[in-house]
Design brief:
Pfam families: tRNA_deacylase. The chain is α/β, with parallel strands linked by helices. 27% of the residues lie in helices and 21% in strands.
């Protein structure tokens, strides 16, 4: 089994960390997946470089296995991050667009209604990234944060994105690129240390974040604590809910009465997280303050109906 790290030459926040990573010892040229996609090998790690948008090359894990004969255990994408605030940031997040209907076109890749398996390293690597960024003097200038589940490309193995944001001024910052490269180097154990975030456990709890904003602050407060595992993070925009019809009680909303893709989004995100953490117990953590009463009641009822436990912050530590 090999680990794919994927970068694109079309993005300075992607090729910058990839170049810094390749500068570290142990690399050798690898086979080309196809014209325009070259690779480099270091132990069980394969770094792929292509020329397209980072969210447009679907099924790289399956294509690699078919062409090269090496099964892929996980995929890590390097990318830029954009934000209205323009605040410098280093971010980590799972991917998918589980809230989109079949007839909707994902604006940034992926497949409507789909959620990738979240990479189990997301929580441990967020904490490691914060430590590295602090040691490198990037904090407090750069915010170290999770992002909610969003965009593509389509993958078939546990996946996460590592991003540098949030404007062109920061995408090309060499110190930020070096921090991401160190995260990869240390996190994957290429320097001879123990890899960080490898899931080989059972009976541990995994946080499935439901509700809140794009940067998942209430979920992140928990994930920053040592030993916490995290799967998908569904922000409010990934839980589209139609208000109950007039005459129905909003205060006691039955989940079947509330239309929208929110139920599908929760279901597929739960199943994808469960698949990524075999033997673990996936528990929902709700950002209660982000919901209206009828929304919270509907979500709580839906989780109960589907035997998905709801955890309090202390349950995940």
């Amino acid at each position: 089994m090999v680990i794919l790290v994927v970068a694109t030459t079309a993005d300075p926040a992607s090729i910058g960390p990839a170049s810094a990573f390749l500068y570290m010892p142990g690399w050798s040229p690898g086979p080309s997946l196809q014209e325009g996609i070259e690779s480099f090998s270091n132990g069980e790690v394969r770094l792929l470089k292509h020329e397209k948008s980072i969210v447009r090359e679907d099924d790289l894990d399956l294509r690699w296995e078919t062409a090269i004969g090496e099964p892929v255990s996980e995929v890590i994408f390097l990318s830029r991050h954009t934000a209205v605030s323009s605040r410098p940031a280093l971010t980590v997040h799972p991917i998918g667009v589980p809230h989109l209907k079949d007839d909707e076109t994902p604006p940034q890749g992926g497949r409507p209604g789909w959620a990738a398996q979240p990479n189990p390293r997301i929580g441990p690597w967020l904490r490691l990234l914060k430590q590295i960024a602090t040691d490198q003097g990037l904090v407090p200038e750069f915010e170290i944060t999770l992002e909610a589940t969003h965009h593509g490309p389509v993958t078939n193995t546990p996946t996460m994105f590592l991003e540098i944001g949030s404007t062109e001024e920061y995408w090309g910052r060499q110190d930020a690129a070096q921090a991401i490269a160190l995260l990869l180097w240390q996190g994957l154990g290429l320097g001879g240390g123990t890899p960080v975030g490898t899931w080989n456990r059972g009976n541990e709890k995994i946080l499935l974040g439901i509700g809140g904003g794009h940067y998942a602050p209430r979920h992140m407060d928990i994930v920053l604590k040592d030993g916490v595992w995290v799967g998908h993070l569904l922000s409010g925009y990934s839980l589209p809910m139609e208000e109950p019809a007039k005459g129905n009680s909003k205060s006691n909303s039955n989940s079947q009465e509330i239309n929208g893709m929110w139920k599908h989004a929760i279901r597929v995100s739960y199943e994808a997280t469960k698949s990524a953490f075999p033997g673990g117990e996936v528990m929902a953590h709700l950002d209660h303050k982000s919901f209206k009463g009828w929304q919270k009641n509907a979500i709580t009822n839906f989780l109960t109906e589907h035997n998905i436990k709801i955890g309090k912050p202390d349950d995940f530590v």
